[in-house]
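Holo prediction — fe (ii) ion.
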Amino acid sequence: MSYELPPLPYEYDALEPHISEQVLTWHHDTHHQGYVNGWNSAEETLAENRESGDFDGSAGAIRSVTHNGCGHVLHDLFWQNMSPEGGEEPSGALADRIEEDFGSYEAWKGEFEAAAGDASGWALLVYDSFSNQLRNVVVDKHDQGALWGSHPILALDVWEHSYYYDYGPARGDFVDAFFEVVDWEEPAARYEQAVEQFE
Ligand SMILES: [Fe+2]
């Protein structure tokens, strides 16, 4: 099988003025496409090596699957976590669980913003199926700092390609902008699916 880049779930200018058409175009068409291509190319190397029995290069290709695969998965999530109708706070079962596990929405948000300010990659809200609780995690690149058994619920990309053209070094302004377009509908459904599977 090979992986394909799904189209954005809205127009390239749909998140303006919070995220510019230019940044979404580069980010989706160039960067995200690059991870899809990288994943496919690494899979080809692995398949060829299995066929030939010569495993030189297989370890590097396995690392490339992790890097590019996590890049594809998280970008796909990130696009779905935003919409022009966003900007609300979560509701329903996910909102209740955030209150239960973090104390309050404000406490969750403060901690998530701290993660986003520090990450060299992503801030993620995950459902940790091992401990049966929600957590924020700081992820460098696309995979360093991931926690086994965790399922990403909400993803915020803080690679420089995500914000620098719009906000320069003021990453905090971009994080504020993310909360103007964050759409909790998809994360709420993803959370319910994850707990159903593991609780
Ligand atoms: Fe990105």
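READOUT: The helical segments are 21-52, 58-80, 92-102, 105-118, 164-167, 171-181, 185-198.
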